[in-house]
Amino acid sequence: MRKKINPDFYTVKKIKNSKGVNYSMEYKVLSDTVIHYYKTGEVYSVGTAVSHMVWYGDNHVFWKNGNLKYKWNFVNGIKEGLGVEYRENGILKRELYYQGGHLIKQKCFDESGKKEVLCE
Length: 120
Description:
Layout: E1 10-11, E2 15-16, E3 22-23, E4 25-30, E5 33-38, E6 43-50, E7 54-62, E8 68-75, E9 78-79, E10 81-86, E11 92-99, E12 102-109, E13 116-117
Antiparallel strand pairs: 1-4, 2-3, 4-5, 5-6, 6-7, 7-8, 8-9, 8-10, 10-11, 11-12, 12-13
């Protein structure tokens, strides 16, 4: 039986991620803040958008366990500046530098998140 959906939310179509895992999300718009949820209720992402979902400022994506997965900065819907990716255990994986939506440089880190390694 499907849980009753809060009328302030609505369901986004089912999505299959790159690993073939199906999930669906519900989201709610609070002024300019957009919060996406995993179907099981955990927060998937929090970001700021203007009309037609044009992202701006810091946007965060979370692992299902609540740890931060990505942090991106957007300007008029385009990635700009430093983006950060974390492993599921919360340890730093990569720093990505964007200019006008294009990846211009990245730094990758070992399993400890402290030593810089060659990016694959």
